[in-house]
Amino acid sequence: MKNIRNFRNFCIIAHIDHGKSTLADRLLEKTNTISSRDMTNAQILDSNPLEQERGITIKLHAIQMEYVDKSNEKYTLNLIDTPGHVDFTYEVSRSLAACEGAILIVDATQGIEAQTISNLYLALEHNLEIIPVLNKIDLPSAETTIEAVKKQIIDLIGCREEEMLYISAKKNIGIDAVLDAVIERIPPPTGSIDKPLTALIYDSNFDSYRGVIVNIRVFEGEIKEGDEILFMQTGMTYQVEEVGIMQMKRLRVGKLSAGNVGYFTASIKNLKDTKVGDTVTLAKNPATTPISGFKEVKPMVFSGVYPASTDDFENLREALAKLVLNDSAISYEPETSNALGFGFRCGFLGLLHMEIVQERLEREFQQNIVTTVPNVQYKIITNSGEIIFIENPAQLPNPAEIREIQEPIIKAEILTPSDYVGNIMKLCLDKRGISTNIEYLSEDRADLSWELPLAEIVFDFYDKLKSVSRGYASLDYDFYEYRKSDLVKLDILLNGEPVDALSSIVHRSKAYEWGKKLCTKLKELIPRQMFEVAIQAAIGSKIIARTNVQALRKNVLAKCYGGDISRKRKLLEKQKEGKKRMKQVGNIEVPQEAFLAILSLDD
Amino acid sequence: MTIYIHIPFCISKCNYCDYYSIIANKEAIKKYINSLQTELIKVASKYRNKEITSIFIGGGTPTSIDADHIVEILNKIKSNFNLSQNCEISIEANPASNINFSKLKETGINRISFGVQSLNDEELRFLGRIHNANLAKETIKEAKKYFNNINVDLIFSLPIQTISSLENTLEQVLELDVQHISAYSLVFEEGTKLYNLLKNNQIKAKDNDEDAFFYNYIANKLKTAGFVHYEVSNFAKSGFECKHNLIYWEHKEYLGIGAAAYSFVDGRRFHNIKDVEKYCYLVDSGFSPIKQTEALSKENIYMEKIFLGLRSSGIDFSILSPQQQKFCETIVDKELAIIQILSNNMKILKLNSNGYFICDEITLKLLEMNS
Ligand SMILES: Nc1nc2c(ncn2[C@@H]2O[C@H](COP(=O)(O)OP(=O)(O)OP(=O)(O)O)[C@@H](O)[C@H]2O)c(=O)[nH]1
Ligand code: SF4
Ligand SMILES: [Mg+2]
């Protein structure tokens, strides 16, 4: 039986792209969890094809390793690799809850960035031991930056210089020291197998044969196959079928005891029964107090997701239901649109999350979908004092019934080299932001605190921030509060008919400009057709901008004799396929991209 | 059924041309004509009971070879097939001073179609034509002494064309008083000289609107001159519609003989190999020169009937769904088409010139509603 003192549970945290998954690769190799030969591609834990393609981690990945140290002592290391992108902060906080320590990676050429700080704070909230690691020291430019970065880290964490490790995850430099530090500095878990079982659910996913795979960190007691377990929050009981640990594949081990990390299954078909953050205990001998979980994540942006062909509504419903089994952060509700028919209003953690969900629907579930412009959730106070939340601009009540519209405000932390402070302030002001603090972390590095409407961040804020700072500024944000704002609904009419899927809620001061740009953009996107198409932008009954798509004048192949007929038929067949990517709105053909036109207004 | 004969020889290659045609010597031509007759005789047995309503000798430039060859071929057809009483026999020609019209007439040809393309010398040079406007006019005047059913092919929307040069060409053509005019908008086919010039940005294609403007101009001008716009690119004096071409658009059968010739018989489309030498070799050694055959599915046939009908004499209302019929009414409202009731009470949707301009769009809309 393994001694709890020889367990180490830790995760790797950092700003995006600082090298977490690459370090994980090296640790897996050093501990022979995977041979270099089987390391078929870099960032092997990024197992989803989308993660591989985009070169980013989108989901936490846990894996258990065995390590024998210099004095021949055997250790069991539970590692969790986490995502760095702000949309997936929730994955980080769940990972932290299962660990006693965290490796905080900082790219030696980039220095501290927004998620370095936000993830560090999360780790400190969980009282984790932090091991600061400077990565990418192989890069020539690290030579010039490393001293400054060292200082940044010392200032931020308050650690001593000797505590820092210098590595190149890519070039396999300094990895032994990382393992030694994990063993030496991260405290072993505490807990006793004699106490009643408490295990924290930090993640779950779905397997069509075994049902929900529940990922747990056992804090006290022991969980075995055959045990009758109780989910303390939901009150559901199940009989455990399989207990195991995560290696490159799941490995059945029969039981898990205090201090360990692993999974169990219990033929759970309903994902709602297993809430991430809930505590698992034994039904016969339950613990008295649950482990404190985490606050539930709430979607931040919403968009309509519709089947490209109306016949596929049921298929889409099934696909969403399956997808949600593996990504509980998505919310979805059926809705209807006069332009797009039956579909769903889906909630996402952010724009990247939205993109990834849409891509997974198309690729893993072969759904051909049309999506609408993302928007935030608005809080409406009616004249009668009733409060309603709307996730779709088309649901906005008649203005005459509205006392006040509130929009979500976020608190943003922007880290930037001081040179760009001016540009960034200008950008934030333009996005209706309020500056609350500027702190100079060093002579040439500033931390700007702003309150900004989330709706302004949703569109193109991040890209703009990167462009006004030559890529150097980074952003972290969190929901702050709902705040009253002068918002109006901007409608788009095609040949006089409002198209609900093109409606948006915008600030009055920007409505006119938006309306104009949107009309122009739509004119570019909507192809010429048999009849003229009038495009209008309106607030209420007032038209604020208009343009039109002229009727198609000529579309016919000049010649069609004996030899041309087959060729022409095939050509028409192909064009017919192309038309399938169009939505019929009344008798107007609207390409799917048009429903996302607002996103590219500035190109 | 109708017969198409392909004569794939030209004096030189035009800049826009992607038809199968080559420049060959007398020997090669003679050999080809022999093989072609072998193919004719071989297939004739299969179709002896089908009445031949028209024959079209196309190319290439059929008038660039010795007229005796044409006589040989037609004699073979006459003795091996069952020709109808008033069989239309057309030949394609390019302006030249040495065409033996009397021999062609004698052998039974009753319709002649000239590749004129333009009557502006600069435009003719641009197209790589080997004749000038004057020779074209002289040739037609000569032909008129023998034939009273003459077509002139024109190409418009040339990059260097202006509306006044087009007007000028049209006026001269009208003066020649021919019975039929085909007007094609210039297409830059891959592999042609003009295509390469376009690709290298050395010339600029007319845009859709300009093209539509030229087309519209032609349609109006010819209508005023008494021509009927009976297919997307075809105009005829009443009664002079080309029977042979109507066969294509009415989805009827045609048999193609010769290298690269296309056929549609018994629900199958097939075509012969596009290579004179290989064609001769195959035929002479007793093999079939057919390169590819395509059997049409029910959907294929439906689709063809719709798009071919729309671009010519119209489509039968009864093959349309209620939703499609309703759509037809809107396009009639928008003055893109008319509804004709034939003497047998058949209801036909027929596009007018404005409808022809956007025929493909209308076709796609109709097809979309079917699926
Ligand atoms: N030169 C150099 N490049 C490195 C090193 N470590 C990682 N990289 C590169 O940095 C990029 C990002 O590495 P990842 O390991 O995917 O970064 P990550 O922190 O896991 O990124 P996210 O999961 O998206 O937050 C990749 O192109 C790596 O090859 C290093 O030590 N040296
Ligand atoms: S004459 Fe006709 S077939 Fe011959 S090259 Fe010119 S366009 Fe082509
Ligand atoms: Mg990663």
Question: Could you characterize the architecture of this molecule?
Answer:
The complex is a heterodimer of chains A (603) and B (371). Chain A is an alpha+beta fold and 603 residues long. Helix content of chain A is 25%, strand content 34%. An eight-stranded antiparallel sheet of chain A has the order 11-10-16-7-8-15-12-13. Chain A has a six-stranded mixed sheet with strand order 2-3-1-4-5-6, with helices on both faces. The N and C termini of chain A lie far apart (63 Å). The model of chain A has no long low-confidence stretch (mean pLDDT 92). With 371 residues, chain B is an alpha/beta fold. In chain B, helix 1 (26-44) packs across helix 10. The model of chain B has no long low-confidence stretch (mean pLDDT 94). The interface between A and B is large, with 25 and 47 residues. Iron/sulfur cluster (SF4) is lined by residues 10, 13-14, 17, 19, 21, 59-61, 94, 115 of chain B. The site of iron/sulfur cluster has 11 residues of chain B, from loops.
List the defining traits of the structure above.
heterodimer, A: 603 residues, alpha+beta, eight-stranded antiparallel β-sheet, six-stranded mixed β-sheet, 33 strands, 25% helix, B: 371 residues, alpha/beta, nine-stranded mixed β-sheet, three-stranded antiparallel β-sheet, 14 helices, 15 strands, binds guanosine-5'-triphosphate, binds iron/sulfur cluster, binds magnesium ion
Topology:
The complex is a heterodimer of chains A (603) and B (371).
Chain A: E1 7-14, H1 20-30, H2 49-54, E2 61-68, E3 74-81, H3 89-96, E4 101-107, H4 114-125, E5 129-135, H5 142-157, E6 165-166, H6 175-185, E7 198-207, E8 211-220, E9 222-224, E10 228-231, E11 237-239, E12 242-246, E13 250-252, E14 255-257, E15 261-265, E16 279-282, E17 301-307, H7 313-326, E18 331-337, E19 341-348, H8 351-363, E20 369-371, E21 378-382, E22 387-390, E23 402-417, H9 421-430, E24 434-442, E25 445-453, H10 454-468, E26 474-484, E27 487-494, E28 497-498, E29 504-507, H11 508-525, E30 533-539, E31 542-549, H12 565-579, E32 582-585, E33 588-591
Chain B: E1 2-7, H1 26-44, E2 51-59, H2 67-80, E3 82-93, H3 101-106, E4 111-117, H4 121-127, H5 133-144, E5 150-156, H6 163-176, E6 180-185, H7 193-199, H8 208-224, E7 228-231, E8 234-236, H9 243-249, E9 254-257, E10 262-265, E11 268-272, H10 276-284, E12 290-295, H11 298-310, E13 315-316, H12 322-333, E14 337-341, E15 347-351, H13 353-357, H14 359-370
The complex binds guanosine-5'-triphosphate, iron/sulfur cluster (SF4) and magnesium ion.
